[in-house]
Structure formats: C-alpha cells, structure tokens
Amino acid sequence: MACQTQCIIGESLTFTIQARDASGAPVDATGDLSYKVYEDETATQILSGTMAKLDDSNTTGFYSEQINCTASNGFESYKSYTIRITGTVSGVSVAKTYTFTCIAGPDTFTATSGALTSLANVQSYIGITDDDTLLTALISRATAAIESYCNRTFTSTSYRERYNGSGTNAIHLDQYPITNVSLLGIGLYDAIRITNTSSDAYSATVNITSSTLTLTVNGGTNDGDSDFTLADYTLSTLVTAINAVGSGWSCTLVDRGEWDAIELLECSGKNCLDTYAYAQIPEDVISEFTIEKYEGKLHLVSDRFYRGNENVTVRYTAGYVTTPGDLEQICIDLVNTYYQSRTKDLTLKSEKIGDYSYTNSGSGRDLPLSIINRLAPYVRWVL
Fold first, then answer.
1. To the nearest whole number, what is the mean pLDDT of the chain?
2. Residues 305 and 333 in one domain
C-alpha cells in the first residue's frame, strides 16, 4: 500500500493497494475497488473512478491507479487531498485512505524540507524577471539558513519518531504545528525473530530503515544482501518472504501478524548469526490523547509515558501547508540580502580612505540581526 505525500501541480500521482484476507494473504477483491478524491474537508469529491489490477498474471490482489493533479481536474497549490478507496474483500467491506499535498509547479523551488517562498514572489518583490537559476539557489540557501537557526522544519512533512518516556503524561514532539497524529505507541514489542545459520559466514545482520528491511550475510557461499520493501507486506507475509530466501535465513512470527510491516521500528546492524535478532513494533497503541497543536505537545488522558529509552513511538504530520505571510517575507528579505550583496564584502563594517582604516564586522555568512529579531517567534528552543 503506497501513495506519495506530495504532488506537483500539473503532474501525475500514482497510488497502489494490496488486497488481503483476514490472515493477511493476498487476495483479489470482489468486483472493482473504487476511489474518490476530496479536497481538504470539502464534502464533494473532485475525482472518482475505479482501480485496475497491476500485473494480473504475476500478482494477486494488487491494484494501481494514476490521477492527473491538474488545475483542470480541480487541484490547487498548497491544498491537501484525501483519496478514499472502497471495495469488498473476502466478503468484507473495506476502506483505505491516503493523504497528499499539492505544491506549486516550476516557480516553487523545493529545498531539503521545502522552500519558504517561490521564485515568482521573490522576483516580484525585487522587481526583476531574470536570474532564475541564481535566485532559485538563494531561496534554497535562505530556507536552509532559517530552518537551521530556528531548529525546526516548516513545510508540512510526515514523521515517525521515537522519544524517551519521561514518567509524566506529556511529551513534546520535535516538529510543530501538529496537524495529524496517525499512531501513538508506548513500549516495545518483539514481533518477529530472525536468524541465519550460514556455517562459513563470519557475520549476519538485520537492518531496518523507515521503508526497507535488509538481511546481510558477510562471507561464505551465502554472502550478499536481501532487501524487502516494508510497504509490500504484513508481518505475516514478511515472515513467509524471508523464509523463502533460503541462504541460511529463518524467520518466526511471535505475534500480531496482521500488522503492516511498515510499522517495524528502525534498527541498525543487529547481529543474527547463530542467534536471534528481534524486530520490534510499538507494544500498546494509545487512542486517548489530546494535542496542543502549536506547542507540539501530546497529553495522555488517563495514563503516563512511563520512563524508558526511546519507548514512545509517534507517527505524525507537522508543519505549514501554506507558509505564514510574515515568515515568507523574512525569507524573501533574506534572499534579497543575499542577492543584493553578492558583489559586496559583507565583513566590511567601516572603511576610511585617508590614512587608510578598515574594520571587520565578523563572518559574512551570519544571519543579519534584523532577520534574527524577526525570527524570534519561530525559534524552537530546546531545554
């Protein structure tokens, strides 16, 4: 099950879904899987249709569809959209949703975490119509400098993070404003265990990232990697796939085979040669909590985050879909400062011609004090 979280206006977006029965095994749906696309909380869909099976001869129950995110289809920049997929699988009515955000086309430069302004807005403010390449690069640098100084990411982004339980009923998340919390888990649960018995290997490891599980054998006849895209499996089907690899690999499901494998927590280089490495998921999923959106804070209603090392897992979305006007203006002003001073010595504070004198004001790479003062409301202070 997959769908990208952002799409540029004018381009296409592809989403897929794997139909499964109650045991987690792939199965064809009964009839069509239908979808509807909604903008923000508007009650009328802007697009609808049915999903087609992809590679029907080699897969079971794997459906895909592509939509055009164009203005003529009703899509707008910096709006959020929900795709709702419905159908009947093994006699049960099922529904699945995806969300994504549309962003502007060529005039928006995407930095590491998304630009805080657009090329068109910068050019309009400066009063020029050229230097696209340079200004695009300066927008990226200004965005990075502002986010580095403020110690946060501003553009709406999805995260899965782990925190230490503090013994209180509240935790502060790294990013804000919080717009959605899709999973809050407490504790760690050993969901599957993996081992390798290659007699001529000198090591075997399990590595899990946010999207991939990698099995690695070092040395011997089974030397090499085996990669598994987590979004393609439940825990039950992932165990089956690992056991099918051979090469000395063996995997056992401990419990919760119906969970999507994408919920496995990240780990790096767990040793499993002639021993077990356990892959974990959150132990208890919490549904009773409140959110302080602009504080980036979660409160449990009737419990506490018991003390522990990275024993709290949160999957959430935070940041601005549309950059606040004052923050965008700060970014534009910083871009303009970079642009106007590109041929000047920014370290020069004063200079005297007669009996020559020179005063250095410090690094020319520092943010101007006027920018720093205006960023004060946006800085994330770490205690």
1. 86
2. no
CA distance linking residue 139 with residue 102, whole number of Å = 20
Q: Is residue 33 part of a domain?
A: yes
Q: Which residues pair with 95 in a beta bridge?
A: 86
264 shares a domain with 212: yes
300 and 173 co-located in one domain: yes
235 inside domain: yes
Give the count of beta carbons closer than 10 Å to the beta carbon of residue 371: 18
Regarding whether 309 and 222 lie in a shared domain, the answer is: yes
Q: Note whether 66 and 13 are within 8 A (CB).
A: yes
Beta pairing partners, 187: none
Cα–Cα distance measured from residue 204 to residue 223, given in angstroms and rounded to the nearest whole number: 9
Q: Is 113 inside any structural domain?
A: no
Rounded distance between C-alpha atoms, residue 9 and residue 69, angstroms: 6
**What digits encode the pLDDT tens for the residues 318-377?**
999 889 999 999 999 999 999 988 766 555 555 555 554 444 444 444 789 999 999 999
3-class DSSP state of 189: strand
pLDDT in tens, 97-150: 999 888 765 444 333 347 899 999 999 999 988 888 899 899 999 999 999 999
Range of the domain at 362: 119-154+321-378
pLDDT tens-digit readout, 141-167? 999 999 999 999 998 888 888 898 888
Positive or negative, the Cα torsion across 231, 234, 236, 240? negative
Angle between helices 325-340 and 132-150 (to 10 degrees): 120
CB atoms within 10 A of CB 181: 16
Q: Which amino acid is at 127?
A: G
Beta strands 157-165 and 12-18 are unpaired
Q: Quick one: which of 320, 315, 33, 368 has its CA closest to 182? A: 315
By C-alpha distance, which of 146, 116, 140, 115 is closest to 380? 146
Give, for 124, the enclosing helix (H) or strand (E): helix 119-126
Closest by Cα among 218, 220, 243 to 228: 243
Report the phi/psi class of residue 131: left, alpha or beta, with left for phi > 0 and alpha for psi in -120 to 50. Answer: left
Q: Look at the chain and report how many structural domains it folds into.
A: 3
328 with 314, same domain: the answer is: no
Q: Are residues 55 and 145 located together in one domain of the fold?
A: no
